[in-house]
Write a structure and sequence with these properties.
The protein has 144 residues and is of the alpha+beta class. The chain contains three helices and eight strands, in the order βββββαβααββ.
């Protein structure tokens, strides 16, 4: 009775089909999930990584906003695993190396030659720069 010559009849009432896109596990958030959160209770660690292949009962899928704002309870550590597809943010070491390279490139050629030659060709009464660490300089007195 529910079929016609063209195939099964469609119901006039819309069905509640589950979306194939996994959604954020946070209450009242319907955004698509991009990361999976897992807790390692023995190590007091929350692990946030790329979206898992399968939805697991003790894992939580989070959207981009909630995964960025994730915090752990006091005494717990958050480990963020990157999936490699997103560009990584520069670390403090990367930024320091870049700043040092810019400083070195901006130094006048004479001073760079003096620092490299440990005082060769320097004027008699001027101290000679023999080292540099960040914004600090090590100077050798002209008498030595």
């Amino acid at each position: 009775m529910g079929e016609s010559r063209r195939g099964p009849l469609k119901s006039a009432v819309p069905s509640n089909v589950v979306s194939p896109v996994r959604r954020c596990s946070r209450t009242a958030c319907g955004r698509p999930a991009v990361a999976t959160l897992t807790y390692v209770y023995a190590d007091s660690t929350a692990v946030l990584g790329p979206l898992a292949t399968y939805a697991e009962p003790h894992c939580y899928d989070l959207c981009a906003e909630h995964s960025e704002r994730l915090t752990a309870p006091r005494g717990w550590e958050v480990v963020r695993l990157s999936d490699g597809s997103a560009p990584s943010r520069p670390s403090g070491d990367d930024l320091e190396a870049l700043a040092n390279a810019v400083r070195e490139a901006a130094r006048p050629q004479e001073r760079a030659a003096e620092a490299g030659g440990l005082g060769k060709g320097s004027r008699g009464g001027d101290p000679v720069e023999v080292g540099r660490r960040g914004h600090l300089r090590v100077l050798r007195s002209p008498e030595n």
